[in-house]
Amino acid sequence: MGGKYEKLTFDCYAKYEKTLSIYLDGKLAQEIELVEGMQTVTVPLNYAGTIGFGSFGEGWIANAILSGERTVTKPVPPANATYLADACTINGGARGSVTDTFENEYTNAVELGGTATISLNGKYKTLTATVFKKAKTGESTTETRKYALKYIFENNHTYKFYVDGNVVAEIDLWDATSPQTIEIPLNYGMELKIEGSNSVHHLFLADAILE
Q1: Is the pLDDT assigned to residue 70 strictly greater than 80?
Q2: CA 103 to chain centre
Q3: Is residue 122 within 8 Å of residue 189, measured between CB atoms?
Q4: CB under 8 Å to 192, separation ≥6 — which residues?
Q5: Greater pLDDT, 91 or 92
């Protein structure tokens, strides 16, 4: 769903009483107790990227309508911004342009897969960036899905931010399907380490600004 919708409403027919499980971004979000016959169901989506339905035996859903669409726009950085991609030495990351799932293009992006270390030299208090994830390039759709499912069930898909060895923030990759703004406290530290729990999904820090 691309992280664009607030809720989903649909007609549901069940042949007998049953529980319908709803999964958002691979995690169990809601269990709906169905009665025999027809009913209308509304599911809060909270702008999730994907929705999944657990099997509920003999039945079907129809007239499914997505609503509450939001427009995600790229923030405009200040003209005199100090960009992470330009100011720091980055080991384990690539720099350049990238386009997110809403077709916003960023020219000062840093792509991180696995673990990266960034030299700060004690100059900065905070790091502000637009973050989102994408599957690793160079893999087929089948391979990407296989690895994605593996890490959903292993619950192994986070990035941790360390400043001089201390954890200051943590991001769950499944919450970064759609672009969102984060602020990481740097506390004038010397080194920022970003450690990913797997390399199947890469984390993008777009228009990352040091202040």
Answers
A1: no
A2: 15
A3: yes
A4: 117, 118, 120, 127, 161, 162, 163, 184, 186
A5: 91
Cβ(162)–Cβ(192) below 8 Å: yes
- Whether 193 and 117 have beta carbons less than 8 Å apart is answered as yes
Distance CA 88, CA 74 (A): 23
State what percent of residues in the chain have pLDDT above 90.
Answer: 18
Phi, psi at residue 133, to the nearest 5°? -125, 155
- State the Cα–Cα distance between residues 159 and 194, nearest whole angstrom: 7
- Say which residue the tokens 């042949």 belong to: 15
- Look at residue 90 and tell me whether its pLDDT is greater than 70: yes
- Rounded distance, CA 57 to CA 46, Å? 27
| Per-residue confidence band for 144, with pLDDT thresholds at 50, 70 and 90 | very low
Please list, in sequence order, all residues whose beta carbon lies within 8 angstroms of the beta carbon of residue 168, skipping any fewer than 6 positions away: 161, 162, 184, 185, 186, 187
Instruction: Report whether pLDDT(103) > 80.
Output: no
